[in-house]
């Protein structure tokens, strides 16, 4: 790109955008090639520093958009088919309680265990919290709302017993295996868990701007040049369209992060608009992230990051899928850069790449942006200007005076689920980007009315432009993304 761009007050920053200018206006281009232009704009505003449209970039900008025909969408999140069940009570024959000095199960005597579910079949081998094992003897029976299992020590040794400490209320049992005699008829059972269903709504966003008849024809003193071409504009209307479009995309990005679901558990919202109709909003990205995956730090360390990412991916994501992107502010970038530079002291610099002894690579490009850990964990840090906005984020760090939000790391699992991106933009068919105008004395593209036969919608000396969109964001698996907050208040 032209090195003089920053010194010539250039309005448009990308060659792609200059291609749109050749179509006369963004609005005209959207009429003829909507999908292509929408993707281009998502990419353009996402890479433009300070625009803050990063979320739109990593969804719509790279083709991760789901189009639906309603204003509500649902998806299933699969969970593991195996689990541990909780012991409600336990006893041995001849006693309803087990003392800490007892030896339950010694001499292959049965132990009775009460649990909430019929989770194991006859012959299943179950493990206690200390990994001692017992075999399920026969079918369980119901006692009120609980199932009673009869267990014997699975190693078959007469002097073996189960520790009373792991038979207390709240301890758990998990499946370890199964064991049967010759010519057996019994068998363990298969467990099923239905996926839990997630539901969200699209947000309806709007924006309008007015151009007076005079402003439509006003020539600005500063000429706005299109980089890489000889094209330029001096017209206020063209500039206003750019400003409105940029603000529009910035508002969408902000709302896709911070919006909160407005409906109650019954799907009813008590928020009404001016015309009396209900206002529905969907949950933004922050509200979709599992609350258990929000953690705090005072001073960022590499161990803090690694531990958090390991917890997000452990036993959930395959090693090839442990790829995360962390959206953070400038202060978060500085913190990330600081901890990696401290760690890089033990590495060898070869060309512009740090290489560990195990062959993991650390890419260096001004500030560190990507780090690879063992077990396939990879984190890429991306600047998210919305976190730096002093107008929006008024809680400040007590030392730096910068927004606390600027230290936030919103860590998103960007892998795939069943062949689909885990993070997707969701839009309503034909309503992702709706634009229209109400014309008065002037209409965009055709200029001032010159005849009494010209039909316009109002008597204003000017025109108004309107934007509307129905869209939301979907985090298919909310358990593998998280937020790392700076706790420095």
What is the topology?
Blueprint: H1 15-22, H2 26-32, H3 34-47, H4 54-57, E1 65-68, E2 72-77, E3 85-92, E4 111-115, E5 124-127, E6 133-136, E7 141-143, E8 146-153, E9 172-178, E10 196-201, E11 203-212, H5 213-217, E12 219-225, E13 232-235, H6 236-258, H7 285-288, E14 294-297, H8 302-313, E15 323-328, H9 330-343, E16 348-350, E17 353-355, E18 361-363, E19 370-372, E20 378-383, E21 409-413, E22 416-417, E23 420-421, E24 423-428, E25 434-439, E26 442-443, E27 447-448, E28 462-475, E29 482-486
Parallel strand pairs: 1-24, 14-29, 15-20
Antiparallel strand pairs: 2-10, 3-4, 3-9, 4-8, 5-6, 5-9, 6-8, 7-8, 11-28, 12-13, 15-21, 16-17, 17-18, 19-20, 21-29, 22-23, 24-28, 25-28, 26-27
Helix pairs in contact: 2-3
Which structural traits does this protein have?
six-stranded mixed sheet, 489 residues, alpha+beta, single chain, six-stranded antiparallel barrel
Structural notes for this entry:
With 489 residues, the chain is α+β, with helices and mostly antiparallel strands. It has a domain at 85-178. Helix content is 19%, strand content 30%. The protein has 9 helices and 29 strands. The longest helix is centred in the middle third of the chain and has 23 residues, at 236-258.
Structure, briefly:
The protein has helices spanning 15-22, 26-32, 34-47, 54-57, 213-217, 236-258, 285-288, 302-313, 330-343, and strands at 65-68, 72-77, 85-92, 111-115, 124-127, 133-136, 141-143, 146-153, 172-178, 196-201, 203-212, 219-225, 232-235, 294-297, 323-328, 348-350, 353-355, 361-363, 370-372, 378-383, 409-413, 416-417, 420-421, 423-428, 434-439, 442-443, 447-448, 462-475, 482-486. It is an alpha+beta fold.
């Amino acid at each position: 790109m032209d090195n003089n761009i920053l010194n010539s007050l250039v309005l448009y920053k990308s060659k792609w955008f200059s291609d749109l200018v050749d179509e006369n206006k963004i609005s005209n281009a959207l009429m003829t090639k909507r999908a292509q232009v929408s993707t281009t704009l998502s990419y353009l505003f996402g890479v433009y520093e300070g625009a803050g449209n990063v979320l739109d970039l990593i969804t719509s900008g790279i083709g991760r958009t789901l189009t639906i025909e309603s204003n509500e969408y649902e998806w299933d999140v699969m969970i593991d088919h195996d689990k541990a069940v909780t012991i409600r009570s336990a006893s041995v024959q001849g006693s309803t309680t087990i003392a800490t000095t007892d030896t339950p199960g010694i001499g292959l005597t049965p132990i009775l265990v009460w649990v909430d579910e019929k989770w194991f079949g006859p012959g299943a081998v179950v493990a206690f919290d200390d990994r001692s094992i017992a075999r399920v003897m026969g079918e369980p029976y119901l006692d009120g709302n609980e199932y009673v299992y009869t267990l014997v020590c699975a190693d078959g040794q007469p002097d073996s017993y189960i520790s009373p400490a792991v038979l207390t209320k709240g301890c758990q049992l998990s499946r370890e295996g199964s064991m049967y005699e010759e010519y057996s008829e019994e068998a363990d059972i298969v467990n099923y868990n239905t996926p839990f269903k997630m539901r969200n709504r699209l947000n309806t966003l709007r924006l309008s701007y007015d151009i007076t008849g005079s402003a439509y024809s006003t020539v600005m003193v500063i000429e706005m040049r299109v980089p890489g071409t000889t094209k330029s504009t001096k017209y206020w209307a063209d500039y206003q369209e750019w400003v409105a479009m940029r603000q529009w995309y910035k508002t969408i990005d902000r709302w896709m992060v911070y919006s909160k679901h407005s409906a109650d558990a019954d799907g009813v919202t008590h928020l009404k608009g001016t015309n009396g109709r209900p206002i529905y909003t969907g949950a933004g990205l922050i509200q979709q992230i599992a609350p258990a995956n929000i953690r705090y730090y005072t001073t960022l360390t590499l161990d803090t990051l690694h531990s958090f990412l390991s917890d997000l991916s452990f036993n959930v994501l395959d090693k090839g899928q442990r790829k995360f992107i962390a959206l953070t502010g400038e202060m978060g970038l500085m913190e990330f850069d600081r901890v990696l530079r401290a760690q890089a002291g033990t590495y060898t610099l070869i060309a512009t790449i740090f290489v560990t002894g195990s062959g993991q690579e650390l890419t260096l490009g001004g500030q560190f942006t990507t780090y690879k850990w063992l077990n396939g964990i990879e984190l890429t840090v991306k600047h998210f200007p919305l976190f730096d906005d002093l107008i929006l984020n008024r809680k400040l760090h007590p030392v730096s005076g910068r927004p606390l939000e600027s230290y936030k790391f919103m860590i998103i699992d960007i892998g795939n689920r069943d062949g689909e991106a885990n993070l997707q933009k969701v839009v309503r068919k034909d309503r992702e980007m709706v634009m229209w105008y109400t014309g008065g004395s002037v209409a965009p593209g055709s200029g001032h009315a010159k005849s009494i036969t010209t039909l316009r919608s109002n008597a204003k000396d000017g025109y108004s432009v309107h934007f509307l969109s129905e869209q939301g964001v979907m985090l298919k698996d909310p358990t593998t993304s998280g937020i790392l907050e700076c706790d420095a208040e």
